[in-house]
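Task 17 of the worksheet. Students: predict the tertiary structure of the chain below and write it out as C-alpha cells. Keep your answer in the requested format; marks are given for formatting as well as content.
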Amino acid sequence: MTIRVFTSFQAVPAHIRRQLSYPHEPNFFLSLDWFEPLFETCLVNTHSPRIYVALGAEEEVLCSLYCGASVALPRALLSMTNFYSVQYLPGLVGKGCDNAALSALTSHIGQERPRWDLLRLSTLTDGDEATGLFDGLRSHGFLAQRYFQYENWHARVAGESFESYFSQRPSQLRNTVARKQKKLEKLHKVELRFSTEESSDLERLIRDFTTVYEASWKEPEPFSGFIPALATRCASLGILRMGVLYVDGAAAAAQLWITSGTRAFIYKLAYDEKFGQLGVGSILSRELFRRALDEDRVDEIDYGVGSETYKKDWMTSVRQIRGIEAYNLKTASGLLRGTWAEAKAVVKKWRPARKPAEVVA
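Model answer:
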C-alpha cells in the first residue's frame, strides 16, 4: 500500500480521479465531484489542498481524505469542509482495505515534515469510518477529542410508497398542506418545474432558485458561485433534483435535493416571504418527497444538518454530527495545546452543577 498526496485537484491523475469521482465513489458528498466545486468557490483562500489517497498494488484507491493546510493557522491541517458541508468521512473505506488503509493514512499524516501541530476535522457522521479515523489518529501520536456539532434528521423509507409515508406524518401537517394546496390552485395559476440533469431549462431554474433564496428569510449566500456550480455538477451526473414552484408566473418556492445512490438529501430550500401564507414551501416539499419515494425509490431521506422544528414533522430519526480536534504530542505546540485541552475537559467533567439562585421573599 502506498499513500499519495496531491496539492491540487488538477494534479490528480486521470485514473485516480476516475476512482475518486461519483459514482465510483458511491457517496457523492465524499467524492471528488463534491470537494472540487466546494474548494474552487469557497475554500480557495483558506485551504491549501492536501488530498490523501491510499493506493493498492494496482493503484486502486482504497481510501481518501480531503484536507487542506490552513492558510491562517500555521501547521494546522483542516478538513475540506465549511457550513455547506453535510458529511465528512474518509472516502471508499470498505473497498478492500478498511482499517488498514485508515491506519496507513493517519500514520502518513503523523510522519509528515514539517509536522502538523493540529488536525481539525468537522462534520463527521458517527460510524465505523469516523471511529477508525479517530482511533488511527490516537494510534499515531495524536491526542484526539470528539465534540458535538449538529443534529442530523433523517428517515429510513426503504420499500415505502409516498402515500404510506405521508399518511404517517402529523395530521396537522397533512391537513395544512392539503388545504393550502387546494386554496392556492383555486385562486392562482400554479406551475411546478423540475430539473434532474443538464437541459435547456437548468439555467433558468438555477436563476429562479437564487431569486427565491434572496427573497426568503435566510441570510444571503456568502459564496454566490457555489450553488450554481453544485447544481451544474449534480446535473451532469444525473443526481440533481431541483424544483421551483411558480405562482402566477413568479418563482415562489425552490428546493435543491441531491439523490446519491439510495439516499435523497434535502440540501437547500427557501420560499419568497411574500408567498409564505400560501404554504408554497410545504406544497413543493410534498411533491419532492413523492418523487424521491415513488420515482427514485430511495432507502433514506436525509434532511442535512440542523435542528429546525419543521424537520421533525417530515423525518423519523436523528443522529449526531461530530468533529475531531487532534493535537500532535510530538511537537511542542501540539503537546501544549493538547495538555491544555485535556485539562479543560477534566475540569468540565468534574465541575459541580451550578445550584439555582435562592429566591428571597
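Marker's comment: The chain has eleven helices and twelve strands. Residues 356-361 have pLDDT under 50 and may be disordered.
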